[in-house]
Design brief:
Blueprint lengths: L1 H17 L3 E3 L6 H10 L7 E6 L2 E8 L2 E8 L2 E8 L6 H10 L4 E10 L2 E12 L5 E11 L4 E6 L1
Antiparallel strand pairs: 1-2, 2-3, 3-4, 4-5, 5-6, 6-7, 7-8, 8-9
Length: 154
């Protein structure tokens, strides 16, 4: 019975974490974040705002046919541009082919944080009965010239 209770609590906590993000109207975004966004992206009209907690917000939008995200927090602003894998530097493609054969690319983005730009490549292996499940997900980080920085298991 005690194990069942512990499992139930774990499931409830996991669900609470998943639902911790909440779509909000732009009027509910912190004024300094909204002001910064409107100053840097004056022509963007269709923006989806998500609040993770009282200090962390994310703006998702498309500009010039490129999916972009801007994450605002008390630690700084992070910008992401999602790009097609074919536009990544050859050194990144070589690393994927040589060290991560059998992995599929989930997405590639260019990230700007504190004035430094990097590539983030999220990869996974197909698994499950019909190959629909993503196994062993990883995030690989590269400098803009394609030099490998590190890998994070997700």
């Amino acid at each position: 019975m005690r194990k069942l209770f512990i499992v139930l609590i774990a499931v409830l906590l996991a669900n609470a974490t998943v639902f911790a993000q909440k779509t909000v109207a732009k009027e509910d975004v912190l004024k300094n974040y909204l002001s910064d966004f409107e100053k840097n992206y004056p022509d963007v009209k269709d923006v989806k705002w998500v609040m993770y907690d009282s200090l962390n917000y994310e703006a998702t939008f498309t500009s010039d046919d490129v999916l972009q995200k801007v994450l605002y927090s008390n630690k700084g602003t992070e910008k992401r541009w999602y790009v097609e894998p074919m536009y990544t530097p050859k050194a990144i493609k070589d690393t994927l082919a040589n060290s991560y054969a059998g992995y599929k690319i989930k997405d590639v983005c260019i990230v700007e944080l504190r004035g430094k730009m990097t590539y983030q490549v999220r990869i996974y292996k197909k698994g499950g009965l019909f190959g629909r499940k993503q196994k062993d997900p990883k995030q690989l980080n590269f400098e803009t010239n394609g030099k490998f920085i590190d890998v994070i298991s997700l």
